[in-house]
Input
Amino acid sequence: MPKIDLEKIMLLIFFAVILFLGPGVLFDYKLKHDFPFAYSASDAFQHQVRANAIKDMGNFKYEAFYISSGLEGTVGRYPPVMYHIAVIFSYFSGLEVYDAIYFIVVFFAVIASFIMYFIIRNFNKTVALLSLPLSMLIFSFPASIGFLWGHWPSILSQSFLLLFFWSIMRIDMKHGYILAALALSATALTHTSETIFAFIFLALFFAIKLIVKKLNKNDVKNIMLSLIIFSMVSFYYLVIFQNTWAKGQPYSFAVQPVWEGNPGFYIAGFGLLLIPIILGLVFSIPKLKYLHISVILGLAMLISGFLNYIGFQLRSFQIRFFWPIYLSVFMGFGLYIALKFAVKKWNFAYTSAIFILLLILLAGAVKLPILKQTDTQVIPSIPYLNRETNQGIMDQYHWRALKWLSENTEQESKIYFFYGDIYNQDALLRNSKRFHYQVDPDDFVKSIQDRKIKQSYVSELPGDTGGGITIRKGLFNFESATKSLPEGYFFGPKDICTFNYLIFDKVSRQQVLAQYNTLIASEMLKKDAQIVFENEAVVILKNNRVGADCIEERSF
Amino acid sequence: MKKEVFELVKKELRYIGILFLLVLIIFKIAFFKEDVVVLFRNVLSLFWLFALPGYFIMLYWEKELGFTERFVIGIAISAAIIGIFSYYLGLIGLNIKYHHILLPTVLVIIGIFFNSSKKD
Output
């Protein structure tokens, strides 16, 4: 009879549990959705739209004009790897891009927890198994904001960062430096700031090696070869990065203890789990001299998560989304140390029992009556998965309207979005795939207060300006695409009669806003506009005489 | 490919087949509201795009690493390579719609080639 490998069974159980409680809950136990599901912020749509645009264009040489504020020929400046993987996966799986990109991000976050497992296993197999359940907390609130609010490039890049840590652990294998180079390039081409954290880890690793006198010629040779290959593979994109993001968002010192406007993850969020984590951290310090990668990376990423105090700002807060993975080694080691005091003869049965117990506890399946359990960040608490599915901000009605615009309007048409509750997350409007403006909510409300119907409203051009919209003139020659644009191009009064299509929401949380939309639409219908699309939430008008007076200004 | 490596591949491809079925079952549990055909196609995509190319690349280190570790790391390595090279292939004019067939095939061939020419 073949020997049953209990370790592999544990890994399979963990895979099933994390998939069920993580992506399963997040996606309402489905892979295919009728619209972008569990998208809770503009950034999520930003990435989905870009991946869709790459699928349409066939490559990422240029950014689509409807992303770049209507400007053509601007260089594709976002790190491309996540989008390309998503599009390729979409082609083979048949999933829509909006499902494929989200799935890829959560799937590789799960894979990252397994990579960490193998890194810790190289230190101690029991510690690795005791550490693994903590990784599930990447899907607990507030760490789950990383998924819901669209910090996807950072999350995927951190999965590659773990791959890089693993490859450094194995760099002594024959040609192992190639794996390190590829992993490092993947971080740079997925979300470049994670590459900085890779170098922080490397600095710490080599500093410790130097201190304990274990740095040898072979180490230096391997890392140099790795960096040379990394530079060659990443060169083309890094030139773009240097001339866009690095210039647009240079480093500046700032102390930012709190992530304003975001429910960030703070160390206290581990609650009572901090006890084994701190214990593990303390006991692992003497182990540094043995150069265990899991301990060094845990320390490096703990420090990296606090670099918001010296100017790393949101990049450090993003690192914290993966703290449940990075710091799991300390929890596992802390538990192991503590339990070893009580149990003299440790065996696999103890490991299995604690592993299962941790899974149950962190899944929130059992509430301990003596401990206050909460998913807020208050000590004492034990964090656990909240197991609530959230549809996000999109719905089938708005999605159908946006799809209709992308499929049924002329490509050069200009479209105008009047007020909609969800339109402040403006990247979702790019799903129209058309050049678009939207009404400024303040001017819209003021017009209601003044009881006026107008032909001109203050309007915003909601494109993606992150990193600077840039045109590439040569290999090293880049130029801003926005410098010669007229004043008021991005924000100012706009004549609504110059637009081909106008979109009105019929429902709102504040019904007066929707009623005003309906009033404007009905006034336009008295002139040269016609309804071309309508459902329960949205009506789209076509302006048949663009440029002519399409509405009569009046009071009501 | 050397005989012993060939035998190893034969054995481990059986493991991969079993893993495919196990992953499909786990996917059916985690995404129980989803149609089996959709799940099958998704799991197949994961294996075709990431697991299989990753396996053949990581085969180069079969003496240093166990099957499970090679399998998991291979998934991430394959994603890294496919993501990076898909970007560059797109830039030189090969439409991304061909990459889901081309890149995994090339990676599998490269993996087999390097394992055949590997010196002990």
